[in-house]
C-alpha cells in the first residue's frame, strides 16, 4: 500500500498497536471489504478476531476483561481500520465507545462486573440508544419513557439509527428515557432537556417487549448493523439503571464528547484511505502518454489531500491527548470531529475525481469511501451541532 | 518441553529485491524488513503445541543483522516465551551451510526437544535449512508437515510432499518444517504486545557460540555468488491455442510450474 502518512511522536506501545491494526486491516479486512459491502453482511469472523486481539477492550482495565490500553489507542485502531473499511471501524467504535463505555464510566462495580467483560473481550456487542425518530442531540425531544412498576421500571418508546443493535452477539442496549418532570414551571428553552428528567437504563438482549427492525438500507456503512429499536413496555429491574437517576443527559453528553474524538479518527482513516488509493492510481493510470500523477492538476489534488488528512489527524491527536491528561477537551473534540469529517468528504470527492469513471464503479474502494463518508458529518452530532459546541466555548455575549 | 522456532527477517515480499553490486549479497537496505511469512506458521504451531502441553517453553530464534531483532519481537508478541538473536558482523554473507552451523550451535546452547521452522524463506527460497539442521543436531527430521502431534517423547507428522501425504512418526528430539496448510497464524493481541516487552531476549555473537570468524560469514561459506545479472522484465511467454484441449493443457502447464 502506498503510504503518504506523516509520522508523529507516538510512544512505543501506541506505535506497536497501530502497526498491528494496520497489518490486520491490510491483510484480513481489506480483501473482504468489497464483498461484505456488496452483500451488506456483518463480519462476525473479523469481529471475533478483533476481540481476540483485544481491540474491543483497549480503553478498559484488565480486571474488566480489557486490554489495559487507553482511549487514544482505541482511536488509532479505529483510524487504521477505517483506512480500508469504515463499516468494521464503526462496529468497533460504537461497540467500545457507545456500547461498553457508558457501563464502564457510569456503572456500579456490580454492573461493570456483570456486563463489561464479554463486551471488552469482543465476544458480545453493546449498543447505545439515544437518538429517536424525532430527535438526537436535542435531548428535550426524548419521548421514550420509563415509569416505576414496583420492582423496577417499565420502558416504552422507539430508538432510531442504533449501531450494533441487532447482531447475533448483541447483549445489551443502553437507552435513555424520561423518568419524570420536575415540579413547577420550566422553560423549554432555558434547559437543554426542556426540564425533563432523563435517565439511562441497561436493557439486556433478549428482553420481553424488546425488538429491533430489519437493518436499514443505508447509503454507506453497509457491513455495519444499524436498526430501529422498539421498547414495548420492557421491564428492567431497578439495578439496571445506569448512573444516577436524572443524570442520563449529562452522562450521554460526556460519552458523546469522547466519541467525537473516535469518530474524528474514523474520518481521518477514511481520508487517509482515499489518499492511499488515489496516490496508487495516479502512479499507474496513464493519460496522454504519461501517468496522471505527473499532471499538476492531479499533483495538487493529492497535495491538498495530504495536507488535510495530516491536519485533521493532529486535531484528533490533540483532543485525545487533552482527554487523557484530564484537561477540558469538549471544544477540541468538536473541532476535530467537525474538521475531520469535512476532510473525509473532501478527500473522498477528490479521490473519486482522480479515479474518473472507475471511481463511480462500486467495486473500487474509493466508491465505497464516497458512500461511507457523508454520515461522518451527521453521526455523533451533526457538523451544525459541532459548530454550536465550538461557538458556545468562545464566550460570545449572551451565552 | 523446549520448542525452538526459527524466524527470519526478509525483504518485504511485495518490494523488488536486489543484490548489492560487488559482493552480490542481498541488499537489505533496499526494502523494508518483515518477518518471513512462512515462519509465522511455525510460530503458530509452536504456540498451539504449548497450549496443549503444560511445561512447554517456546523460544524464538533468529540470525541476522541488528534490525532482525524485530522478527523475534513479533514472535514474542504472538506468544513465544523467550527470544534469542544471533547477531555478529562476521556472519554477513553466510550461506545455507554456514547458517545451519551457526543456528545448530545456537539451538544446542538453548537446549531443545523440538525445532520448528517454516518451509523456506521467501528471499533465498532454498528450503534446505531444516534438513541441514537435523543432520547437524543429530535429530530426526520431518519436513513439509501439514499436521503435527506430540505424544510424550514421540512426534507424529503428516507430510505433504509431491502432491502426496505421508504419515511419519519420529522420536524427539526432532526438526520439523511446516507448510502453510497447517494452521492460520494468529495476530498478536494488545496484551501480547505489552507482555513481549518484559520477556527475556538474549543476544549471542559467533564467539558466544564458540565459532571462529573464519568458519562463518563469507569467509566460511562453501558457496559464493560470483556474478549476477538483472532478470529481464520480459519473460518467456507460452501461448496455448485451443484445439479442444486448451483447459487440460493450461492445467498441465500450471502444474508443471508447481502453481497448482
Descriptive notes:
The complex is a heterodimer of chains A (399) and B (260). In chain A, 53% of the residues are buried. Chain A folds into 3 domains: 2-120, Orthogonal Bundle (Butyryl-Coa Dehydrogenase, subunit A, domain 1), CATH 1.10.540; 126-249, Butyryl-CoA Dehydrogenase, subunit A, domain 2; 250-393, Butyryl-CoA Dehydrogenase, subunit A, domain 3. In chain A, β2 (145-148) and β3 form a beta hairpin. Chain A has helices at residues 12-39, 44-53, 71-82, 86-106, 109-120, 248-284, 296-324, 330-355, 365-373, 383-392, and strands spanning 125-129, 145-148, 152-163, 170-180, 197-204, 210-212, 226-237, 241-242, 286-287, 290-291. In chain A, the strands form 3 sheets. Chain A has a 4-stranded mixed β-sheet, with helices on one face. Chain A contains 10 helices and 10 strands. In chain A, 49% of the residues lie in helices and 15% in strands. Chain B has 260 residues and is of the alpha/beta class. Chain B has a single domain (2-220), classed as Rossmann fold (3-Layer(aba) Sandwich). The chains are: A alpha+beta (399), B alpha/beta (260).
Give short descriptive properties of this protein.
heterodimer; A: Butyryl-CoA Dehydrogenase, subunit A, domain 3; 4-stranded mixed β-sheet; 10 helices; 10 strands; 15% strand; globular; B: 260 residues; alpha/beta; 9-stranded mixed β-sheet; 7 helices; 11 strands
Secondary-structure blueprint:
The complex is a heterodimer of chains A (399) and B (260).
Chain A (H helix, E strand, L loop, with lengths): L11 H28 L4 H10 L17 H12 L3 H21 L2 H12 L4 E5 L15 E4 L3 E12 L6 E11 L16 E8 L5 E3 L13 E12 L3 E2 L5 H37 L1 E2 L2 E2 L4 H29 L5 H26 L9 H9 L9 H10 L7
Parallel strand pairs in A: 1-4
Antiparallel strand pairs in A: 2-3, 3-7, 4-5, 5-8, 6-7, 9-10
Chain B lengths: L1 E5 L2 E3 L21 E3 L1 H16 L4 E7 L5 H10 L3 E5 L9 H15 L3 E5 L10 H9 L2 E12 L2 E8 L2 E8 L2 E5 L11 H7 L4 E4 L12 H4 L25 H11 L4
Parallel strand pairs in B: 1-4, 1-6, 4-5, 5-11, 6-10, 7-10
Antiparallel strand pairs in B: 2-3, 7-8, 8-9
